[in-house]
Amino acid sequence: xxxxxxxxxLDYIRANHERFVSELSDLCAMESVSAWGxxxxxxxxxxxxxxxxxxxxxxxxxxSGQPIVVGKAEGGSDRTIVxxxxxxxxxxxxxxxxxxPPFEPAVRDGCLFARGTADNKGNxxxxxxxxxxxxxxxxxxxxxxxxxxEGEEETGSPHLEEFTRENAAWLGRADGVxxxxxxxxxxxxxxxxxxxxxxxxxxLTARGASSDLHSSMATLVPNPAWRLTWALATIKDxxxxxxxxxxxxxxxxxxxxxxxxxxxxxxxxxxxxxRLGLEGLLLRLTGHQANLRNFFQPTATICGLLSGYTGxxxxxxxxxTAMAKVDFRLVADQDPADIESKVRAHLARxxxxxxxVRAFAGERPARTDPKSPLVGVIRRAMSRVYEQEPVxxxxxxxxxxxxxxxxxxxxxAGFGVGHxxxxxxxxxxxxxxxxxxLGTELVAALLDGDSWAG
Length: 454
Prior knowledge:
Alpha-Beta Plaits, 4-stranded antiparallel beta sheet, Aminopeptidase
């Protein structure tokens, strides 16, 4: 498509910006929390309607879980790009930390606040609206696009594998997949990520007496909160080294090419610490060492603890149960099932075989070659829109079902409309309205034939 076609498309995006924001707000008002299991079918229908308005042919694929929305729009060449997104969101808790209700979208200080703005409804709608702009103002799409929008990403995508397996024949012929997540960094530079970390998510429970007791009984009755605390303390030391036997055995060392890519990533450690209200980052890391740890090291994180009385004032109680939710972010070539097995064995060896371990859906890590043609297309599109070179990350530090696509031989890369202060998964999640417009323009530029001509 000639440059004049893209100019008309960008003009359309700018002229319809307020309407686009309103459509995004309507979608963010839907309480599509997959952990709650409500409003998901209605949200899937709303996504399908948006795709149809943009000019895509839509089918809603039923699964034994939540439906997957598939939208296909034909373009003027034999190239096809797949957009992977999700319409489900994280729970909004803790509600008291939101400035306004999480499902009542509000614009403040040039930003749209609501659960799902950055993860992932903002990215989804920017892509849908860019397709609309090409179909209505650009004379049609230069390349074909496929949307795969699921409703279970935040709970481990348990039914996406069946879909990708059944549709592998046509999916595998695509030129690449644009992943659901991305943002501009603390300096405002656009970023593109070439992979995901894996995850092993476990729930650990210690049990004591059959009911909570008066705390004076602590002389005779074991306290499961202490029991769980002691068990957790065996998993990681004060220097952040994970102590589970064999945990690091499969970790793939960064290649020479990986290390060269790290050298191009700015040192944002001071800005990041300041934005988070910290004096410095963990272990006082900065620069290359901070980036090396961030992208190429696994983690062990206590995500939540629950035991006994946690309300206002005093209640002298000896709790009957204690529970912790723990996630392990994994790097290539770690496997979540292997890590789960090693954690169970570790607890038993440490004398904590009474700790109950419940495993949630795990996901493997995935990587895309930085030399992939798809990466070049994205870099050219970003340079056209942002008028600066993007920062290329070897992987995201979060997780997702990316291996289901890389296993088909597809290159996968992620970018989006978030920013460094988007507070993904946290109260007051938000995106900048300017970033939303620029992100929509970026998708439009990605779909332009000139971006693929390099």
